[in-house]
Write a structure and sequence with these properties.
- It is a single chain.
- The protein is α+β, with helices and mostly antiparallel strands.
- The protein folds into 3 domains: 59 residues, 434 Repressor (Amino-terminal Domain) (Orthogonal Bundle), CATH 1.10.260; 72 residues, no CATH class; 98 residues, no CATH class.
- Helix content is 37%, strand content 19%.
- The protein has a 5-stranded antiparallel β-sheet. Strands 1-2 form a two-stranded antiparallel ribbon. It has a two-stranded antiparallel sheet with strand order 3-4.
- The protein starts with a helix and ends with a strand.
């Protein structure tokens, strides 16, 4: 699709007139009309506003001329997978697992490889093939080439260490020691917990990225731990998240 078609489609899906969209991004109705006829293309600052308003990448607004991949893990990117900065704007260089709320979630390449291998071995790769592929690919990506300059996730590593201490200090019966926290997107771990009043509740934002892990217990149940800078959550559940029980939700 061309830019003119993309903007027209996004506007009509929102049920907006040209004048209403113009007000949202501080331009005239005539400017929107010229975009949709292909006479002009929004300038860089306006593209940023449109990206934020519609929740799509600038690459999408321009008709997807580039094939985006995460510059930390190498994952192909579409708008639903792109990470966001602290202001909530999309950062087209990273996926939401590697970059969340303006912070890089990995500082150690070996840790990232361990996480990625677990996913790739379920997608037709052997463990040896996955490790060889990642070992060749990751050093070529911008994040790992410029890790020291970018900060390398050091502030997040400090948070992880603090959270590990807080989880382990809870002394929850039967829960193994928490030794590692990984980036987890809410939509994949947002379980619905039953309440005593018969209702059920979810605590997470499907689009947000959290730090957490799954711990195997002796009674065939698992413990799930999740956290961010604001809370700790501990749950137990059976295979595939069945019969979840909320054990703790604690503000930090």
């Amino acid at each position: 699709m061309n830019t003119k078609d993309v903007i027209l489609e996004l506007r009509t899906k929102r049920g907006l007139s040209q004048e209403e969209l113009a007000e949202k991004v501080f331009v005239t109705r005539q400017a929107v009309s010229r975009w949709e006829t292909g006479e002009t293309v929004p300038n860089t600052e306006t593209l940023k506003l449109l990206s934020s308003f519609f929740g799509v990448s600038i690459n999408t607004l321009l008709g997807s001329p580039r094939k985006l991949i995460c510059q930390c893990c190498g994952m192909p990117l579409d708008d639903a997978l792109i990470g966001r900065d602290k202001a909530g704007d999309l950062n087209e260089a990273y996926c939401k697992w590697c970059y969340a709320d303006g912070e890089y979630t990995y500082s150690d390449m070996d840790d990232l490889i361990e996480v990625c291998v677990g996913h790739m071995t379920g997608e037709g790769f052997s463990e040896e093939q996955a490790r060889a592929y990642l070992g060749d690919l990751l050093p070529k990506l911008d994040y790992w080439k410029n890790q020291e300059e970018l900060g390398g996730g050091k502030s997040l590593e400090a948070l992880k260490k603090q959270l590990l201490d807080e989880f382990n200090a809870l002394k929850i019966e039967g829960m193994p020691k928490v030794e590692k926290l990984n980036a987890l997107v809410g939509g994949f771990v947002n379980l619905e917990y039953p309440l005593p009043n018969g209702r059920s509740v979810k605590f997470l934002d499907d689009g947000a990225t959290y730090l957490g892990n799954q711990l195997e217990a002796e009674d065939n149940r698992c413990f799930g731990v999740l956290a961010n800078r604001e809370f700790l959550l501990v749950a137990s559940y059976e295979a595939a998240g069945a019969n979840p029980q909320l054990l703790l939700y604690k503000k930090r």
